[in-house]
Amino acid sequence: MRIRTLTTSAAAVTVALGTVAAVVVTQSGVEGSAAPVAATAKKPAAPNDFNGDGYADIADGNLYGKVKGTRAAGFVTVVYGGPKGASAARRQILTSPDGVKETGLFGFALASADFDRDGYADLVVSQGKGPGRVLYGGAKGLTSRTVTLPAGSFRNAATGDLDGNGVADLVTTHGDDARLYLNPGTRPGAPQVTTLPMPPNPDPGAPGGPDGNSIRPLIGDFNGDRRTDLALVQSYNVAFDSTESKLVVRLGTGKGLGPAKVTSQPSTEAISSALVRAGDVNGDGRTDLVHAADANGSDTKAFAVRLGTASGFAKPHYVSLKSFGSAVKGAHTGYALAVGDVDGDGRAEVAVNLNKGKGGTRGGVVLLVRGTRTGPSTKLFQVFGQDSKGVPGTDEKGDEFGGGLAFRDVNRDRRADLVVGVPREDKNEGRLYVFPGTAKGGVTTKGVANIGASALGVAGSTAGLGGNLLF
């Protein structure tokens, strides 16, 4: 198969937001030198379309990277989509406006929505111990127009219209706290920021303690009533090697979120807040939960699915690694999970990272499982890595191929493309692959984008590209 490798000779543009008039997208190399054309703002942009051109963009938080010439710890890499897909020739490297050092971790968590309804998606960025930010989009991509979130730092975030008024809202979580920003617009905190009550951690002093990343917000239509709902997955340690979880669901009512319904999951069915995603895997119009099935160290299951129902989530259905036969022989679950519809049939596929070889001696592979009317199918799947035919690169120990995963329709063909991060490639420089989705229910290596740190102008920054993708 013919593989197109993206390269560029342009130097990266690195800016500290808030210190320049605008943030620009570098333009050179493969895709030509013309700047992106401004879109006419007739309706809010879809999430992740920062320049409003209708093509989804890729954002990656490089929280441990350091860009030469800046004081900041951590930066965010944005690769823009276009008619030919994602290209390193159209990118931004964004650093913290605060110039924070080691404790900054700019890009720790990411979320996106068009909060001000101007036709350009905005980006929410956490920076660890520093204040959270909203970076506003514009015709040439993300701009220097930013605001600080009044509730401070956060570890996870999600967006969606939770009060039914057609305007995106934001939920952030930190430790055991969850906050709702209703209609943040250009002034987060106005009209209100609400603390969402959460069940208390039953044993905050347990070995291992609270992990500071214990609540994951997920937004979708879980019961199929065409209203947006909120789920909060709260996982916590009850012993050094034992995790339990609670699932808090608040259904949309048309007048805002309804009361919380709390269900508990014992250690045998625990949901890891680090690896849980939302999507409709069976095409019934209800958003389902897909999560890692190894919260307590099991290596026999690939993932678990909890289907959304009219009355709540069904019991978990576990998908065994053994179901995929010799294709995953010797594999165990890895570090990433994503849900997206690669063939446009309304049934989302599940992508999961696997490590192969004793002690992780191989660099990692991705298992892509097709969605059907009954959910993910163990008969329709792909397994691929850097040693697969048509995939550029070389499989090496510890590279973590698939260490980050996300779905994005970067070429606007109504099929999600699979973004695969390889964060430990080239001594932690990292690499991004973008595999085009196909009508046959899988991804292809034909036209795969292969984007490294040099092409993005961040070589030598130990960016760990692809390890913290906005999903």
From TrEMBL:
Lineage: Bacteria, Bacillati, Actinomycetota, Actinomycetes, Streptosporangiales
The organism's place on the tree of life at top rank: Bacteria
Protein name: Integrin-like protein
SMART domains: Int_alpha
Record's keyword annotation contains rRNA processing: no
Keywords carried by this UniProt record: Glycoprotein, Repeat, Signal
Keyword set includes Repeat: yes
Signal peptide: 1-21
Annotated segments matching region Disordered: 184-215
SUPFAM superfamilies with a match to the protein in the record: Integrin alpha N-terminal domain
